[in-house]
Amino acid sequence: MQLPHTLSTPDYQLQYRPDLQLLILRWLRPLSLPDMQASCRQLLALALECQCAHWLLDGRREGPLNLPVTQWLTEEFFPEAVRSLAPHPLFLAALRSPARLQQLSSDTTVAPAVHRALAPEQPYHTAVFLTEAEALAWLTAQPH
């Protein structure tokens, strides 16, 4: 079954950009863990279909950082995506709001999990950005 290259739901928008060879997932509101998992399953399915391992993850409208979601992404989903997309390395550009970045310095519950997710020893490459232009520039500069 071929997936559409653009998918919109009330919770998220998913788009493959063949011109840039990247996927964009925009969360449109705060999501529960099951809803986040559903959006990520769609992302991985489209990534496999398009053989695309360069992702822009736009969480600017997602609300505060959420510990269970962060742990699931770091411990389960991103490692699964790395295995599934091998031998292509996974590159993640994370768009964040200023409020979410501030939360990293003030919320001792979620900050360690986020720092672990961004650590260089992870099996994927990631960087955090405040603007889409910076995120796209970083992603398109990564090897394909």
Please state the overall shape, judged from the principal axes of the Cα atoms.
globular
Strand order of the largest sheet: 1-2-3-4-5-6
Helicity range of the residues?
40-55%
What is the tally of helical segments? 5
**What is the rounded Rg?**
14 Å
Write down the CATH topology: Transcription Regulator spoIIAA
| Mean of all residue-level pLDDT scores | 93
Distance between the termini: 25 Å
- Sequence stretches where pLDDT stays below 50 over 5 or more residues: none
Number of extended strands: 6
Reading the helices and strands in chain order gives EEEHEHEHHEH
Protein name: STAS/SEC14 domain-containing protein
Characterization of the model:
This is STAS/SEC14 domain-containing protein. The protein has one domain (6-141): Transcription Regulator spoIIAA (2-Layer Sandwich), CATH 3.30.750. It starts with 5 loop residues before the first strand and ends with a helix. It has 144 residues and is α/β, with parallel strands linked by helices. Helix 2 packs parallel to helix 4. It has helices at 33-50, 67-85, 98-106, 111-117, 132-141; strands at 6-8, 12-17, 22-27, 54-58, 91-95, 125-129. The model has no long low-confidence stretch (mean pLDDT 93). The longest helix is centred in the middle third of the chain and has 19 residues, at 67-85.
